[in-house]
Amino acid sequence: MEYFLSLLSGGASGAILVWLSKNWISERLKQSIGHEYSRKLEQHKHDYSQDLERLRSELNVQLERAKHYNQVSQLRTSLFFDHQRSAFAALIKKTIELNEEWTKDYDPREGLYSSVPRSEYNELVSLFHEHQLFLDDECLVFMTMLMDAYTDSYPYFDGMKTHYNDNSEVFEFVEYIIPRMASIFRSKIGIGDNSVHLQQIIVLSAMTLINGINLQLVGLDFPPSGVLHVKNKHRAADIVKDGIENLSELERRLAELDKYLNEKYVGFVDIQLKVRRCLGVMSKNHNGA
User: Fold this and answer.
1) Residue 39 has what pLDDT?
2) Which of 14, 40, 191, 213 is deepest in the core (most CB within 10 A)?
3) What are the C-alpha distances in Å from 270 to residues 108, 144, 172, 209, 276?
């Protein structure tokens, strides 16, 4: 009996030891796992904190760069528009002075046989070259057309004699351009809407370009016949009216001229530049509309 109780007692003790051992091992495992988890959590927190700090630092650097770029951009824009306004004012002023000097003795009943004064014209050309960087294609279209009109006032030699023409039509052509030129300049600095005047100037330039080159000898209809022909039109307003009423045909003929000059007459750089610039402004305004 005592032996039996001893066995029971020993078995119970063993069971208790086993249970205690299991609990101890389990607790140690829990503690070990908890410790490892805490360690990794702290490491993740540390890494996250470092990553966050690095990100903040990079964002601050990017922000400072953006601020610097914006400041520089604003300064450049401000300087550009300041110079642009000065350029517009100088070009308008010189153009008016040139016209006044040119027509100071003009009598509409007798005609205008004097040419544009060379000195004033050369000053305008110098101003144009000085400020050309600040003129976009729209401005360049009418400025080159204006200066071409002025050169039309000069006498020409045909090999036998010098011809002095009545420049009244040239003067009226220039007078048509100038107020529209001023309107476009004002629009460039945020004053008013220039869309109507810009269209008139571009159409006038396109009509002048397709009528200013003779390609009849190579089988092309330049200057064009029909409604786009300007030979018998004496007023810029009439030329513009016909051009606007046939705008699609005008643009098609201008593109045709550009293609031909590009393929056959690579030496005509000046006129092709004018043609392409005019086409570019036409396309831009179509897309804008």
Assistant:
1) 73
2) 213
3) 34, 10, 25, 11, 10
Who has greater pLDDT, 52 or 99? 99
Above 80 in pLDDT, residue 197? yes
Q: How many domains does the chain have?
A: 1
pLDDT band at residue 24 using 50, 70 and 90 as cut-offs: low
Neighbours of 67 (CB within 10 A): 10
Average pLDDT score over residue span 56-71: 64
What gap in Å lies between CA 74 and CA 81, rounded to an integer? 10
pLDDT at 36: 67
Mean pLDDT, the chain, whole residue set: 81
Contact at 8 Å (CB) between 282 and 203? no
Q: Is residue 113 part of a domain?
A: yes
Residue 67 lies in a domain: no
> What's the pLDDT at 201?
95
Distance CA 288, CA 273 (A): 22
157: pLDDT confidence band, cut at 50, 70 and 90?
confident
For residue 168, give every residue at least 6 positions away whose Cβ sits within 8 Å of its Cβ, in sequence order, or none.
108, 111, 112
Q: Please say whether the beta carbons of 250 and 203 come within 8 A.
A: yes
| pLDDT reading at 281 higher than 60 | yes
Residue 221 in domain: yes
Residue 275 placed within a domain: yes
